[in-house]
Design a protein that fits this description.
The complex is a heterodimer of chains A (243) and B (388). Chain A has 243 residues and is an alpha+beta fold. Chain A has one domain: Clam (outer membrane lipoprotein receptor (LolB), chain A). Chain A has helices spanning 2-18, 22-33, 117-121, 126-129, 238-241; strands at 37-48, 51-62, 66-71, 80-84, 87-92, 97-100, 130-140, 143-152, 161-167, 173-179, 185-197, 200-210, 216-227. Chain A has a 13-stranded antiparallel beta sheet. The termini of chain A are far apart. Chain B has a single domain, classed as Porin. Chain B is 6% helix and 53% strand. Chain B has helices at 16-29, 99-108; strands spanning 40-55, 66-80, 86-98, 114-116, 121-135, 140-146, 177-185, 191-197, 206-215, 218-227, 232-243, 245-256, 261-273, 277-286, 311-320, 325-334, 339-351, 354-364, 377-387. Chain B has an 18-stranded antiparallel barrel. The chains are: A alpha+beta (243), B mainly beta (388). The interface between A and B is large, with 39 and 46 residues.
Chain lengths: 243, 388
């Protein structure tokens, strides 16, 4: 009982000290991620030791629920990914074949990168899936940040625990650590570049490091970002995937 | 020398002058990959194999049991840049076979391919895809040579009678089929796919209709088909979903004249451990084996096998060393016929757009098996792939 009271006092004092609740921060992050439609070109640099492989793609998205990405680099040219909620299909142009990605493959790195299919598929609002505790404030690479620790409320999340460095004004996660249930650090992501597009501040260059692999990282950079583009209803469909 | 490249029929072969003209046209109209919405986008891949062949024919002296071969493949893909409402797509394979592969090919068909004098080489052009599509408001209509992938099987797919898998190809490529196709969507994840085979001979007519949907996390489809050449109707269902492992299958019933029925089915599963080990397995059951007079087509270009027995299997495991390298081992086996092919390969994405593959394949022969070779044979190959 004492522990509960102590914890409640800690939460209350944290609220008073920081002036904002952890749930409000999560909601602000979710609000920042919330958009109608988006289109962008992207470059994915996959670093393995000293070697770098670059993949390029064009992407269309509707909210965080639907996305269609088409690779444009020579080796993967015409390969398309269709994401609808938490399911993923890949179209292989050489064989004109659509393959549904099995659930166990979702932790696999997308196109050999450190970004897993599961990372790409994450579409739920954070505040619905995680409970958050505000553990402090830090200056991260010149940005004044809230430090937030998240614990999963449900099982169907890619990571059981997360630690985020959230910009106090823009509510961008400049850094994020992702943990397994065992407490093992799995991945670390860092925003390398952020741009103001219209009224929205949006991370345009992100680095993802898989801590379970040696000497690898992936840098994902977006360009020509346009929000609220006109997208036909049938774009996010199996029919269109095969076109 | 008896090599695997033994028979190659049913391919589209073009005279050399026409091929030269096609290349010239492509060079003129191609604008590369630009943001312009006109012209053609050309891409492709060069795949060059150097292969050592070893046959285990005890009746021959050892020095006659080894040979060398080369298989050089240039694939040119083209597509119109503005493909929003209509699309043309083509994919042409230009093969240059040398050594034992060329000799084996020449033995079978020396008239329709180009044989380069003095080089022991054979030049072949194979059009895998060449079709046009119109994206109408209510349906997509496509006409021409396309790859029709109706089933879920990676190696065995009894429902895929239009585009069969080349089981000797390391990447399990499929052949194209000349069809007219109509695809009508019913929502994002459901629709109808109807196909009619284009053929001059009425007895070879074929048509199929597939209805597909996504139900409770599973991709499911029902298929009806008629094959004039075999005088048979085919009905079947396919599925793919998750039950801890990824599971998929095809259950197919063949309806022949005079009320004869037979069943063919596959069950497959895939699983991975720690994003490092990957496993895929397929089992095929064939209720009514085909007769021995159905010839196998064995070729590095396209291999198709008749189902002469009841039980077939496929197993593959892949170990990922890192994101650039992996090792895989696979076996495709005619269990009843005691015949099959085992493949071991090491893959290295050595440079941006360039791969190196080192591989070995072993063909287990059997007079009645799926690979009717007179003796066992092994190949050891080095492949360089460059995409552009």
């Amino acid at each position: 009982m004492n522990k509960i009271i102590t914890f409640a006092v800690f939460l209350l004092s944290a609220h008073i000290a920081f002036g904002i609740t952890p749930d409000e921060i999560l909601s602000a992050i979710d609000k920042n991620r919330n958009y109608g439609t988006i289109s962008y070109d992207a470059t994915m640099e996959i670093h393995v030791g000293d070697e770098v492989r670059t993949k390029t793609m064009k992407t269309l998205g509707r909210g965080t629920e639907k996305a269609l990405a088409e690779f444009t680099n020579p080796q993967d040219k015409g390969t398309k990914y269709l994401k609808i909620n938490k399911e993923l299909w890949i179209y292989f142009p050489s064989e004109q074949d659509v393959v549904k990605i099995s659930g166990h493959m979702l932790k696999e790195g997308m196109m050999g990168s450190d970004v897993s299919y599961e990372d790409a598929l994450e579409s739920d609002a954070l505040h619905k899936k995680y409970s958050a505790v505000l553990t402090g404030e830090e200056n991260f690479e010149g940005h004044s940040c809230y430090v937030l620790t998240l614990d999963a409320l449900v099982k169907d999340v890619p990571y059981y625990k997360r630690k985020m460095w959230v910009d106090k004004e823009l509510f961008i996660q400049w850094k994020e650590e992702m943990y397994a249930k065992s407490g093992t650090l799995l991945k670390v992501s860092r925003v390398l570049e952020m741009k103001k597009i219209g009224v929205r501040h949006f991370p345009t260059k992100i680095e993802m490091v898989n801590m379970l692999r040696k000497n690898t990282k992936t840098v994902f950079e977006m360009s020509d970002i346009v929000f609220d583009v006109k997208v036909a209803d049938n774009v996010f469909s199996l029919q269109n995937l095969q076109r | 020398m008896y090599s695997v490249c033994k028979i190659c029929k049913g391919k589209t072969l073009m005279p050399f002058k026409k091929i030269g003209l096609i290349i010239a046209i492509l060079a003129c109209v191609s604008r590369g990959e630009t943001s312009r919405e006109t012209g053609l986008i050309v891409s492709g891949e060069s795949r060059n194999d150097l292969v050592g062949l070893e046959s285990f024919d005890k009746n021959k002296p050892a020095r006659e049991q080894s040979d060398f071969a080369g298989a050089n493949l240039l694939t040119l893909n083209l597509q119109n840049a503005n493909a929003k409402s209509a699309k043309i797509e083509g994919s042409v394979d230009f093969w240059l076979l040398t050594g034992a592969y060329a000799e084996a090919y020449r033995r079978i068909d020396s008239t329709s391919s180009l044989i380069i004098p003095g080089l022991s080489s054979v030049f072949i052009a194979d059009v895998r895809k060449l079709y046009a599509s119109l994206f109408l408001p209510f349906a997509d209509v496509s006409i021409g040579r396309q790859i029709i992938s109706f089933g879920q099987g990676m190696v065995f797919s009894p429902i895929d009678v239009f585009s069969s898998v080349n089981i000797l190809d390391l990447t399990l490529r499929r052949s194209g089929s000349d069809v007219a196709r109509l695809r009508v969507p019913f929502g994002d994840l459901a629709g109808i796919d109807a196909i009619a085979k284009l053929t001059a001979k009425s007895r070879e007519e074929a048509a199929a209709i597939k209805g597909y949907a996504h139900v409770a996390g599973f991709d499911v489809a029902g298929i009806g088909m008629y094959q004039g050449a075999q005088h048979q109707a085919i009905t079947g269902i396919t599925f793919k979903g998750d039950m801890v492992a990824g599971v998929y299958g095809e259950l197919v019933e063949h309806w022949k004249q005079a009320g004869q029925r037979s069943f063919t089915g596959i069950l497959g599963a895939d699983y991975s451990i720690e994003n490092t080990w990957y496993f895929t397995g397929e089992y095929l059951y064939n209720e009514k084996p085909e007769t021995n007079d159905t010839a196998a087509q064995l070729s590095i270009l396209q291999t198709t096998i008749p189902l002469l027995h009841h039980h077939y299997g496929f197993l593959m495991t892949r170990y990922k060393i890192n994101d650039l390298m992996n090792i895989s081992a696979s076996a495709i086996v005619d269990i009843s016929g005691k015949s099959g092919v085992a493949t071991l390969q090491y893959f290295y994405n050595i440079l941006q757009n360039a791969d190196v593959v080192v591989y070995a394949q072993y063909y287990r022969s059997s007079s009645e098996g799926m690979l009717p070779l007179p003796f066992d044979q092994a190949t050891y190959g080095l492949r360089v792939e460059v995409a552009f």
